[in-house]
Here is the input.
Amino acid sequence: MMDVFVGASSTITSLGFSTAEHVKQIKAGRIGISIYPGGDLYPTPVPLSLVDTQQLLDLFREYLRKTKPDLQLDLFTRSEMLHILSISDVLKNSGVNIKDPRTLIILSTLKGNMDLLKKDRLPAIEPDRVYLWKWGEFLGSFFNSSNKPLVVSIACASGALAILVGSRLIKAGRYDHVIATGGDILTEFAVSGFQSFQSLSPQPCKPFDAARDGLSLGEGCGAIVLSRNHSLCGIPEKIAVAGGSCTNDANHISGPLRTGEMFYVAIRRALREASLGPSDIDYISAHGTGTDQYDETEAKALSWAGLKSVPVNSFKGYFGHTLGAAGIIESALAIASMRNNELFRSAGFENPGTSDHINILTDHIAREVNHCLKTASGFGGCNVAVVFKKI
Amino acid sequence: MELLITRHMKLQKRRVWLNGAVEYLSEAGSVDQLFRDMYRHYDIDYPKFFKMDNLCKLAFLSTEILLRGTILLGKYPGEEVAIILENASSSLEYDQKHVESIRDRNKYFPSPSLFVYTIPNIMVAEIAIRHKVKGEHAVFILEQFDPGLIYHYVSELFRNQQVSCCLAGWVESYGDHYQSFLFVIEEEDKIRAFKGLQEYVIFDTVNTEKLFKGKSI
Here is the structure.
């Protein structure tokens, strides 16, 4: 049985431009969500977590100057800058060759270049990069990758599924290495859309807390190396994608099945594929958006799966719900927790607020983590569970 | 264990093919008319259909045609059935409608029923709800139908025992353009008892591409 290992990662949010920087900021208790005064993104003030534009432009300009000095900044969209920085970061820190015909870039996103949906903007950009495949092709050709990147899109569970898709395509023998990437920029597209569902909290989100009243949107991008060859992964620890599953509620297009049954089935199957029982899991990186229904459902599913006492956190209290990036960067941080054997407080959580009580982390703690469960869910009734295992 | 394509359908240019034979031809002048005509022709009773965007309508109708008159999904628990779809335009048509609807700041009331169709996997959800399909699913966005990707991904799902039956294919809709190609994949040993094998097609990249292009196997 072949193992698929995870390796170097990159993470970009309001908290910084690398996974290591995020670990440092989270340890220091910094929250990246703040009240955006209103304007471009939404008519009234709303809490958001945004990537620092000036820093993004500076870093990208510097990267272009070093690698492709003949190219101008205005040839790239915001999303493309974020993705290029994320992918280049993991290429620098791993031995994976992007030009290798056995390497695939997977892109997890909801909207890719969502800012191109507004007409008459960005004159130097071909308008058809609004198509996700075209956007992917542009990113692939920037890196001279042999294969056109594959876009995976199942709403807010896209990132976690991208890791499974990568792992499965490697196990199927189709590729040897995958750069699993996830990212979405924040525009009024998503802010107004989530507001139309009254999903946005007026305060920074409080996943699993009794006083939670909605999610906070965040802008983010990240990437994780997957490879059948551990020596190319760029990290000394051997951590494998040991199992995973994706199920559908078959119940409602825009709300979870309240019993949590199919979410539970995804977790059960992921554990089964990993040949692990619930008592083997040391840590859970939950989806935990901060909305009443989704957190309630997730707590039910975790409890049903026998994981009530396992320490769990949601990273969304730090940098919001990063949509297509969420499953990738939250996995990157969970893998960092496995490597360092330290777990982080679930920001925004104070008092238990779900019918089924689960063991939410209220402090940073040291704990040996050999097996970690990552969960995700989203519109369209999707539930995803992934198990990472130290070997 | 051999995987077989046990049923397949295609819809393009106002024609429907089922298992390779044309079985419906429409004179409809628009996509909307075509989908309404098909809904009536196939005698479907599912009022939620009329709330869907065209991408979901196309996925829904294609699945109805593919599964009509079969007990196919009844043979398998819903959680063992997968839906793996590819398309090129994602949900772009509704993305643009949503952007248009929030352009005027004085009438800034986005509609949740519009926004929900701005993610492509809602077409999976609509099929899942209708047929109680609860297993693995994915939506891949590509320039063109990629039978190799479906072959490798679906084979791996069967190999690691996540699924026992899979609906897979291509569902593309944007403006006046639409095209769907859907097929059912089952394990040979599970269907041997039902029918002779000669009617079925071995599931691999080459055969899948041939069916998509309407070539004989």
Summary: Residues 5-232 of chain A form a domain with the Peroxisomal Thiolase; Chain A, domain 1 fold (CATH 3.40.47.10).
